[in-house]
Design goal:
The complex is a heterodimer of chains A (347) and B (553). Chain A has helices at 2-14, 37-48, 59-69, 83-91, 101-106, 168-181, 183-195, 205-214, 224-231, 236-244, 273-283, 286-296, 310-316, 328-332, 334-344; strands at 25-30, 51-56, 77-80, 124-135, 160-161, 219-223, 246-248, 259-266, 299-300. Chain A has 347 residues and is of the alpha/beta class. Classes of the chains: A alpha/beta (347), B mainly alpha (553).
């Protein structure tokens, strides 16, 4: 009995096929978690005949895994959804910097890693998401919330809703604000946000939008694609909620709206570097770039790609001014920001 | 695995295989402890900032959640188990298995469901506002400490229920019957016979529930509740500081160690106080259940119905409603694959965990030495460590080994096969199996072993012929608990699973994380259904002999 019980798991373990290095296969570690991406990956396999093995996890999970696997890692391509994490992974030496005319031309310098001494680049942004403000049009005037700084104004006491301050999307915004304002002013600003909370931070970005639509909050911060997704939802009640709220892209008159990127890189120990670069190049191609917009309501990273997404157009009125801070600087501020959050009691 | 006989074998050699297994289980925990060795000024600063600003609140919140949950699960679990085992009331046979249903519900799924339904912008409050014509908040905020207590209590009481019921149905019926024949009143029978019998099981169940509560991340992060685990995750995810995370985890471990020690003391006291020689011999008795009056029957019914409704029926109905209004775009065809992966991993881990637990418990009983007991105790701590911390504790030494011997491929072996994942499951869930097997062992009187030894029975025969039949039920319960836990497990599965082995839990979580609750409802429901299968099975195994038809006897 016992022997059988011991042999059974061994047999089942053996049945799991190990991942092999092979030109016709690419191993992808991805923190993207959007079901619409399936079409994207299928498109690559159709175009090149290269099959994709994928494991999806969150950013931290992907990084922890890579660090442990070291030189034995089967990963070829790494996709992450936050600029700060991309920077972190670059610093930790998890990426293999590569040269690609296609990628260097397509991705603006602001949205990729600073080139190494030999001109190779560690990671490339693939799509953009804006951190925007939604508000209750019956309680708040648009010009009261059209900059991030104004959200800390005492007049908004009891109005503001956000998700946890420690969430990467907020950490990146706050990291950028720390760069714009300097650490002291940034901490005062965060304190102002905490003082204005309608309730302690909880839930995801969609919950903040719903909070504004239902009257619980008057102002909320959200990533752009959550609102766009609600606007184009199959559920009438979700659409109604999204249409009820006012939208503003903050700091259009100033530094521009905070933008984060989802990006990709070649894994340090990839055995199929050519295939990995080919995949990244595919992701900045016209078809894939348009897919980011239509499938997941993100903005393309490549300038001049036509976006056929009515929800994105309705939100932004076509285009918007985004901040030109190199996205990697927000990564360097993360620990500083988290400690500020702890000090001002921003959960 | 265990040397059969031959007094020539020194004890240390006999216990060596078990010691090796034990070390594999303990390694991630040790890696967590070893994080203290790697001390520098920067780490001290980060830790000091955390101790000042985060730790007091975390400790307080954890206490405020843990105490009510402990009381809640003990009360609900023991009361329902006693009702089902000792009383006769309408629906009893249904409740016997229905009370287990909340086990199939991951706490985070219940949290998502309740939030969707009860929050300010949810349908219930919208409806209440429309119906009453008032505006503003109509119900207390579900995403709060109180809400977390509610979710943990209604999803975790089955741990207590299951163990108490197993304890009561193994011995209580016979003893209660004896007490009845001696003329003891029902209240006295419960107080003086059933309760003392149930106490080790209550303690074991509460400890399991509390470990689960303290290891939780899904509920507390979604509710914005600052527990200890939240602080650990914050330092890991936000600060990318695994060393600080590991140090905080050490403090959590210390708390759990205290809990386990308390529980062990209670169990030891009971083993001496408990009647000897009555274990596992309830077969053939014809204990009749007490039939209370109509008020008592209604009360028993309500008592059993409430946790089932709150922990299963209501959240399942909310998920079903989400499914109904949000026709999903998910490919149904892939469900078989996801469910298959969940079942495969669950079965491997459950089988391995039970075998390991039996071996560890046996060695600690047969050759009680300081080291064998210590290994068992340390392995038991894994359950309280948050899954992601175990991942850190497991990946740190693997990464070190990989860096030390680059050609070995050990790093990839752990993630490219199910090996690392099953390892992580075992580190976490052998404790669950140990709890159940251990409480089963407690009910086998020590003099049985002594008699066997005097009759010249060797170690292997003692394990297989004497203990195994008496432990069958406990082992079945252990396998079931581990299976359901593995199917629901998230953080380790997320990080360690090999290519192409998405599980139901992973898919449900990915969708919920992406704030697509409607679509997440689909795999979440499937997850619940997979979790239901072994529950039905276990309920049959657990049913005491007198419940079966006459043809079975």
């Amino acid at each position: 009995m016992k022997l059988l019980a011991l042999l059974l798991p061994a047999a089942l373990l053996a049945a799991t096929p190990p991942a092999r290095a092979d030109d016709a296969v690419l191993n992808v570690y991805s923190a993207r978690h959007y079901p619409s991406d399936e079409a994207l990956y299928a498109g690559f396999t159709r175009a090149t005949g290269i099959r994709l093995n994928r494991v999806e996890s969150d950013d931290a999970g992907v990084l922890a895994r890579l660090k442990a696997e070291g030189a034995a890692s089967p990963a070829d391509v790494i996709l992450l959804v936050d600029a700060a994490r991309l920077w972190r992974a670059q610093v930790d030496g998890l990426f293999l910097p590569v040269r690609s005319k296609v990628l260097e031309t397509a991705v603006p310098a602001q949205f990729r890693a600073k080139p190494e001494a030999d001109g190779a680049t560690a990671w490339f942004g693939l799509s953009r998401r804006a951190r925007i403000v939604v508000y209750d049009t019956s309680r708040v005037r648009r010009d009261e919330v059209d900059s991030y700084v104004k959200l800390a104004d005492p007049r908004h006491k009891g109005r503001l809703c956000t998700r946890s301050g420690s969430h990467p999307y907020n950490l990146s915004l706050f990291g950028a604000m720390t760069e714009h304002l300097g650490p002291q002013k940034a901490e005062a600003w965060l304190k102002g946000l905490v003082d204005n909370m309608a309730r302690p931070p909880r839930g995801g970005d969609t919950d903040q939008i719903r909070g504004v639509a239902s009257g619980e909050c008057a102002i909320a911060i959200t990533n752009s694609y959550y609102l766009a997704r609600m606007l184009s939802s199959a559920r009438a009640d979700e659409r109604a909620m999204a249409e009820r709220v006012g939208v503003v892209f903050p700091d259009q008159a100033g530094a521009g709206t905070h933008v984060n990127v989802a990006g990709g890189a070649v894994a340090r120990h990839s055995r199929n570097v050519a295939g990995a670069v080919r995949f990244l190049e595919y992701l900045v191609g016209e078809e894939a770039q348009r897919h980011f917009a239509t499938g997941n309501n993100e903005w393309p990273i490549v300038a001049g790609v036509r976006v056929d997404n009515p929800a994105l157009r309705a939100m932004s009125g076509g285009d918007f001014k985004s901040e030109v801070l190199p996205v990697s600087v927000v990564g360097m501020n993360q620990v500083k920001v988290q400690q500020m959050l702890d000090r001002v009691g921003y959960r | 695995m265990i040397a059969s006989r031959g007094p020539a074998w020194p004890d240390a050699l006999r216990t060596l295989p078990v010691a090796l297994i034990g070390s594999a289980l303990v390694l991630p925990v040790l890696a967590v402890l070893a994080s203290w060795l790697d001390w520098d000024a920067g780490g001290a600063d980060v830790l000091a900032a955390m101790v000042r600003h985060v730790l007091p609140e975390c400790l307080w919140t954890t206490i405020v959640i843990v105490l009510p949950v402990a009381i809640g699960v003990a009360a609900i679990g023991a009361a329902t188990a006693a009702s089902v085992a000792l009383l006769d009331f309408p629906g009893r046979r249904v409740f016997e298995w229905a009370l287990l249903l909340p086990m199939a519900m991951p706490a985070y799924v219940v949290a998502y469901a309740y939030t969707d339904f009860l929050q300010y912008a949810g349908p219930l409050q919208e409806w209440l506002r429309a119906a009453t014509g008032r505006s503003g908040r109509m119900l207390p905020e579900i995403r709060s400490v109180g809400g977390a207590v509610l979710v943990f209590t209604v999803t975790l009481y089955p741990y207590v229920y299951l163990l108490v019921r197993a304890a009561l149905s193994e011995r209580a019926a016979q003893l209660m019957d004896a007490a009845r024949l001696l003329g003891a009143a029902p209240a006295r029978r419960v107080r003086e016979v059933a309760l003392p019998l149930a106490r080790p099981a209550i303690a074991a169940g509460v400890v399991l529930a509390l470990m689960e509560t303290m290891a939780d991340f899904g509920v507390s992060s979604y509710f914005g509740v600052q527990t200890f685990t939240a602080a650990i995750y914050k330092s890991w995810l936000a600060l990318d500081d695994r060393v600080t995370a590991a140090r905080l985890a050490t403090v959590l471990l210390a708390i759990v160690a205290v809990l386990v020690a308390i529980e062990r003391r209670a169990q030891r006291r009971l083993r001496f106080a408990g009647p000897r020689g009555a274990a596992g011999s309830s077969a053939g008795t014809d204990a009749r259940r007490h039939r209370p009056g109509p008020r008592g029957r209604a009360l028993a019914f309500a008592l059993c119905a409430a946790p089932v409704v709150l922990g299963f029926v209501l959240p399942a109905a909310i998920l079903a409603r989400l499914l109904a209004i949000d026709a999903s775009t998910l490919p149904w065809a892939r469900f078989a694959e996801w469910a298959g992966n969940s079942v495969r991993l669950g079965a491997i881990a459950a089988a391995a965990a039970v075998v390991l637990a039996l071996a560890l418990a046996f060695v600690a009983r047969r050759w009680p030495s300081r080291s064998s007991v210590a290994v068992r105790e340390l392995a038991g701590l894994g359950y309280a460590v948050p899954g992601a911390v175990i991942v850190v504790g497991l990946l740190l030494p693997v990464g070190w080994a990989q860096a030390r011997w680059p050609g070995s491929g050990v790093g990839a072996l752990v993630t490219a096969t199910s090996l690392g994942l099953v390892w992580a499951y075992l580190v976490r869930f052998v404790a669950v199996a140990l709890q159940s097997v251990g409480s089963g062992y407690t009910r086998i009187p020590a003099n049985l072993d002594e008699s066997a030894r005097m009759l010249g029975v060797g170690a292997a025969a003692l394990a297989l012929r004497v203990h195994a039949p008496l432990l069958a039920r406990s082992a079945a319960v252990a396998a079931l608990l581990v299976f359901v836990d593995v199917v629901k497990e998230l953080p380790a599965t997320m990080v360690l699973r090999p290519f192409g082995s998405d599980t139901l839990a992973v898919v449900a979580y990915q969708l919920a994380r992406d704030e697509r609750l409607g679509e997440a409802a689909l795999p979440a429901m499937a997850l619940v259904l997979v979790g239901l299968l072994p529950l039905v099975l276990a309920s049959r195994v657990l049913r005491s002999p007198q419940d079966r038809g006459p043809e079975d006897q």
